[in-house]
Amino acid sequence: MTKPILVFLAIVLSIVFLNQELIAATNSPEKTNEGKEFWLCFQRNYKDSPMGTVKSKNDLILQLFLAGNKESNVVIEIDGINFRREVKVSADSVTNVIIDAAAQVKSDEIPERLAVHIVSNNPITVYGLNSRWQTTDTYLGLPVMALGKEYYAIGYKYSEGLLSQFAIIATEDETNVTITTTVTTSKKHPSGEPFSVKLRKGDVYQVTSLSDSKGNDLTGSHIEADKKIAVFSGHQCAYVPEGVVGCNHLVEQLQPVSTWGNNFFVGMLGGRSKYTIRIVASRNTTNIYENSKLVSTINAGEFYENSNVTENVQITTDHPVMVAQYSQGFLNGDSVGDPMMLLINPKEQFLRVSRFATPKTGQWRHFVNIAIRTSGISSIQLDGKPVDHTQFNKVGDGEYSIGQIQVLYGSHLIEADEFFGISSYGFGYGDDAYDAYGNMGGQSFFEIK
How many whole angstroms separate alpha carbon 58 and alpha carbon 48? Predict the structure, then answer.
């Protein structure tokens, strides 16, 4: 290769990396997980208690957790059940709001007026919690400005009558959605054959897998619309890995395909010896590397899974992907918690400031995993105080490190001189044993693809 070509390539690469830094440096409330308007929902969690039974541990608990750095007035409405709450969120604190259990979306492929519409006069961070006894998960809510028009579902495998699922919310009237699933749906839409639905603003449209066949996993199903939509995905109650007791509800609000990335850092989970990852592709011939080793090549709508990850892992790909991390069932040998699912921030969407909340009280241990350039560890401030540097370990080629920090219940603020990514999760103990939650941490949502 001639010297002029080498110089030209060096200039191009410099521009690419500079543009990535500039994109991350121009974060605004409209381009992160903080916002003023949200459309959320609560999907089906495990099995309902029999009608007419007395209140039991299995009763459904739905909650929102709201946090912000300014005092905010927030209105929460659910059209289909005439639900309305006006709440005041104090600065630098967490406000939780109980949502009527009737908001749970239990239908299949029928538009329902069960979207949770949240409007605030100041930017806030929102978390949703969906919980029954020993089956809990949480998600980070994404504001309207962070939404897109194309998504791929992610969940897990069939488990004893409990199903993979995803739900779509229209943010505008006359929204046309085209869905192509990887397996036959509960309403007998065949895999690989697109079908369409028209939704009104605030409609929720849930899709579940067919219940009479094992292995019905909706992961990789393609969802595309002509207007912005919110998409939630997961499982009613999954065993992770398949067959390892016990099951837990899985849910995350999905990142639009346009905001996916090529570089990820996945950390060990507090108190656990191993974890599971899934990686979904949106382009054909996507090469996946774990710590620089090629482990799989997959096409659009396919996924790669590794259920025996025992270390911090750097994931790199040659096309943008979505990465999910799962904790495993109590009986995987750890005797801690149960499954949960969280999405990993791509390095391309890291922030320098991120607020998160731990949305579960009781006998729980809460953690945050922080991925940051190794040279920037000393600059991290958690709630105004330096973090314990000994909790960080290098990952992959060593340029980045991951720290596992235990935190208390409440609202927390992380700041650093370098861009970083976070994951927030927790495991139940004592009376709250056999349970877990996890959710993606704050990130930007600039279009990359």
Answer: 8
pLDDT tens per residue, range 285-325: 999 999 999 999 999 999 999 999 999 999 999 999 999 99
Same domain (yes/no): 10, 129: no
Strand, coil or helix: 299: coil
84-115 pLDDT per residue, tens: 999 999 998 899 999 999 999 999 999 999 99
In the chain, how many domains are there?
A: 2
Q: What is the number of alpha carbons within 13 Å of residue 285 lying toward its C-beta? A: 0
Q: Which residues of the chain have pLDDT under 70?
A: 1-30, 49-57, 213-215, 449
Residue 448 forms part of a structural domain: no
Measure Cα distances from 261 to 80, 228, 449 in Å.
Answer: 36, 20, 8
Q: Which domain holds residue 9?
A: 1-31
Judge if 354 and 210 occupy the same domain: yes
Same domain, 1 and 36: no
Question: Is the domain of 343 the same as that of 402?
Answer: yes
Asked whether the beta carbons of 136 and 249 are under 8 A apart, the reply is: yes
